[in-house]
Amino acid sequence: MLEQSAQTLSFSTVAAAEKTAVLKSTALYTGLRITMSYLDAGGVAQNPFECINKIVVDVPEYGNNSRRIDLSGNTVASLPLLSQLGCMDSQDAASATSITSTDPTSVTASTTGFCYFDLPINKLNLDEDLRVTISAVVDNAADVLEVAFAFLDYPMREVFFRVYDTGATTSHQQWFPADGTLQGASITQYDAAWAPGIANTFVYSARDDDVTKISLNGEQSTTYANPEVLMGGTDEIVSGGPAGVSTSWAAYDNYGMFKNFPQLSGAQYINIDSSASEPFLIVGVMSDA
User: Fold this and answer.
1) What is the domain-level CATH number for residue 32?
2) Are residues 148 and 164 in the same domain?
3) CA distances to 31, 90, 204, 232 from 279, in Å
4) What pLDDT score does 1 carry?
5) How wide is the angle at C-alpha 66 spanned by C-alphas 181 and 200, nearest 5°?
6) Tens digit of pLDDT for each residue in 44-83?
7) Which tens digit of pLDDT belongs to each residue from 261-281?
8) Which of 59, 90, 55, 53 is nearest to 73 (CA)?
9) Beta bridge partners of residue 67, listed in sequence order
10) 63/147 same-domain check
């Protein structure tokens, strides 16, 4: 069973408002469930996640890596994927969020007015409280976005995430911090930018051949001159790899590096080359060094 937090957040302004919840618990926990509900004065079905502008989950006992999740702007779109990547297996990943990770702004039966995200935390002590900072907007002044929290206690990966937005580029080198160990990465091209609000139309790019090379640390064994060989990598981890399914990452310009990922210490980098100037989101799954 879940243990609900007494703390909640409420947003009711059409301009961005930032609020922080300080979450206390009577027992250690492995994860945090963040639920969102949108109360629309006009009674229109909405996806509450569309309204998020920033989300930071800070767990103080992890020191330099206390920001387990730190998303703003375009990187907010990756939150559903982070929920899935924090799970131990594809079965748990399937229910880790109610949002379709490949189409995060869509409104479906499972997200109409409500949505949730299960995130890995692995709380180490009860002396320091977890902090969640969220910036959000609503569509009309009479609308209300409610955010509630609950603590989870089932096995989740002991990881945190670093997510980067490259902007439009034909070549990009992304370094990951040396105070963590890179466990895997997802690289996804997107078309439309994240624009908080009900009219949010963020979208990932359909599969194309713009990406010409992906390299991990410049090593020959982890350099891919035909990066399409990585197209199934993310699906292998989050869903078991449903080839041809419209909601699978294989249908999008996504490249996953997870299985048999080399366990190396120190700073590491991923280099992307593209034949056209395109923007990418790079998700790094990190463990504490």
Assistant:
1) 2.60.120
2) no
3) 31, 28, 10, 20
4) 57
5) 95
6) 678 899 999 999 999 999 999 999 999 999 999 999 999 9
7) 998 888 999 999 999 999 999
8) 53
9) 58
10) yes
Handedness of CA 86, 88, 93, 95 (dihedral sign): negative
d(CA 136, CA 84): 23
Q: Are residues 147 and 213 in the same domain?
A: no
Q: What is the dihedral of CA 241, 243, 247, 252, to 10 degrees?
A: 100
- The domain tally of the chain equals 2
Of 201, 217, 158, 166, the C-alpha closest to 187 is 166
DSSP 3-64: EEEEEEEEE--SS-EEEEEEE--SS--SEEEEEEEEE-TT-----GGGGEEEEEEE-GGGGG
Q: In the numeric block, which tokens belong to residue 174?
A: 């992304």
| pTM of the entire predicted model | 0.95
Give the position of tokens 């609503």: 138
Residue type at position 146? E
| CA-derived radius of gyration, the chain | 18
